[in-house]
Design a protein that fits this description.
Strand order of the largest sheet: 1-2
Number of helices: 6
Order of helices and strands: HHHHEEHH
Number of strands: 2
Strand content: 5-15%
């Protein structure tokens, strides 16, 4: 459960309701631990976005502005800009960029590969749906299921 999903569910249940009253009702429904977890998850998400932004900025400055100088020195300079930021290893584990070991970086790569594989599988499912719909000459999967 995410904060966005809780809010979406409330909005869908009362699309024209007063937002402040709905917020008060949501807070009253949630236990303190639930509310803390929702907020902590949102904060963690924002922290991930900030880290990603820092990573992109640091590497863009060093590598895109002077690609001919890419080397150990340029890499070190880019990483210096990441001091104090962390990245996830999955399962709630995080490590600071400047303290990450080779094994930490390998764990991050494995974690990202797993995420990518999940995305690739999702893309494949949607492509299979498109192929089936187009092959059957219908507008949606429901029409295929009803004909079967």
């Amino acid at each position: 459960m995410s904060l966005a999903s809780v809010i979406r569910k409330a909005a869908q249940g009362n699309p024209t309701g007063d937002p402040k009253k709905m917020a008060v009702a949501l807070i009253a429904k949630l236990s303190k631990p639930e509310l803390v977890q929702l907020l902590a998850d949102e904060i963690a998400g924002e922290q991930r976005l900030l880290t990603l932004s820092s990573e992109k900025s640091a590497f863009a400055r060093e590598f895109l502005s002077r690609p001919e100088t890419v080397g150990t020195e340029a890499v070190a300079k880019a990483f210096k800009e990441l001091a104090g930021t962390r990245f996830s290893l999955g399962a709630g584990l995080q490590v600071e960029w400047m303290e990450a070991t080779v094994e930490d970086h390998r764990a991050r790569i494995a974690y990202l590969a797993k995420l990518r594989n999940g995305i690739d599988e999702t893309i494949s499912r949607h492509q299979a749906a498109i192929d089936a719909i187009e092959e059957a000459g219908v507008s949606c999967l429901r029409e295929i299921a009803q004909a079967a």
